[in-house]
Design brief:
The structure is a homodimer. Chain A starts with a helix and ends in a 15-residue tail after the last strand. In chain A, 42% of the residues lie in helices and 17% in strands. The first copy, chain A, has 2 domains: 1-30; 32-193, Rossmann fold (3-Layer(aba) Sandwich), CATH 3.40.50.300. Chain A has a 6-stranded parallel β-sheet, with helices on both faces. Chain A is built from 7 helices and 6 strands, in the order αβαβαβαβααβαβ. The first copy, chain A, is globular. The longest helix of chain A is centred in the first third of the chain and has 26 residues, at 3-28. Chain A is an alpha/beta fold. Chain A has helices spanning 3-28, 46-59, 77-82, 105-122, 136-141, 147-155, 172-177, and strands at 36-40, 64-68, 89-93, 130-134, 162-166, 180-188. Chains A and B meet through α1, α2, α3 and β6 of A and α1, α2, α3 and β6 of B. Chains A, B: It is found in: Cytoplasm. Chains A, B: One of its GO terms (biological process) is cobalamin biosynthetic process. Chains A, B: Its EC number is 2.5.1.17. Chains A, B: Belongs to the Cob(I)alamin adenosyltransferase family. Chains A, B: This is Corrinoid adenosyltransferase.
Chain lengths: 203, 203
């Protein structure tokens, strides 16, 4: 046998073992469920990930609802883009700045309540297949919404409805009830090297 | 002072300190750059994150190119969705299954080469503002493409062009030249609890 054919043979064996593991996992994964996903951590890509899932959902003919609980200083590409599809995406952005921009706890709470009212409507609408609650983790961390009310609404949502909650500092109570939790960590960030937020990437 | 007004005052002070830190970071971040982002780790949301950035880019009137280096067994929502916009997104999916599905190293290398030819064209086209090389990390980890060629193409791409590379196991040489690196870790995954891949979320 040549070195190359040995290499190819080893590769084949390694991939066969891998396929076996994957096949077993697939065989064991037999039921469908409306998932609760939490995407947390301090790294770049949490909200982007949720918006990628909105794109995926639309590709399957599903409908999506988005509530952005933190409105940044700039208009965002994702909002402009998804507002192109008013029949497919219901899009709500909280009307106020937030946290360190407002420095006003009462105003923040009012804004969070207003956002939550919209979220709750989506979470009781079986026609919406995917609900994105962008940056809700921060709202919950600051205690701006009664936790009990949020957990109840998630629990009572229509069967089959997926929910994605993003933002750093996800609270333990939410992680406990989530189906999938990803933590995005910052290994390196352009911003800290003097590069400002770039359109299409951060905005 | 009431307990509530003390609480509000403390909040205000905390947020003012936070704003100062953010303001200093923003003041120091003064230049623009075509970013190289690497999204790696074993958690859910890496590719979704890249597709969210495609959505963001389109919202800003930018153009995007996508090469998916691993074609799964199922048709994906993101492909169906972004193919709606042929003038805005150039979309290429490698024609073969991959790794543990094919178990054929030579065929994988050929498929990787074909994908790379498309990627290289995008990476030399200044009209494409964002290039997503989905799952390229795995291709590089397996050594299916000459690293030197990949690094050169990234280095020589048009100024201002953003590139997002996804997939677990990003190699050190790529992390070294990236502007931003996020690692997505799996805290919990529905799949391992017997729930199969859900449309809009994983597919």
């Amino acid at each position: 046998m040549t070195a190359e054919s040995i290499c190819n043979q080893r590769h084949r064996e390694r991939m066969l073992r891998k396929q076996k593991v994957v096949d077993e996992l697939i065989a064991g994964a037999t039921h469908d469920k409306g998932l609760l996903l939490v995407i947390t951590g301090n790294g770049k890509g949490k909200s982007s990930s949720a918006f990628g899932m909105v794109a995926r959902s639309l590709g399957h003919g599903m409908k999506a609802g988005v509530v952005q609980f933190i409105k940044g200083a700039f208009s965002t590409g994702e909002e402009t883009f998804f507002r192109r599809f008013p029949d497919e995406v219901e899009y709500h952005v909280m009307g106020e700045g937030f946290t360190w921009v407002t420095q006003d706890r009462n105003r923040d709470i009012q804004a969070a309540e207003a956002g939550w009212t919209v979220a709750q409507t989506m979470l009781s609408n079986p026609a919406i297949n995917l609900v994105v609650l962008d940056e809700l983790n921060i709202v919950l961390k600051f205690g701006y919404l009664p936790l009990e009310r949020v957990l109840n609404a998630l629990h009572q949502r229509p069967a089959g409805q997926h929910v994605v909650i993003t933002g750093r500092g996800a609270i333990r109570e939410l992680i406990d009830i989530a189906d999938t939790v990803s933590e995005v960590n910052n290994i390196k960030h352009a911003f800290k090297q003097g590069i400002r937020a770039q359109k299409g990437i951060e905005l």
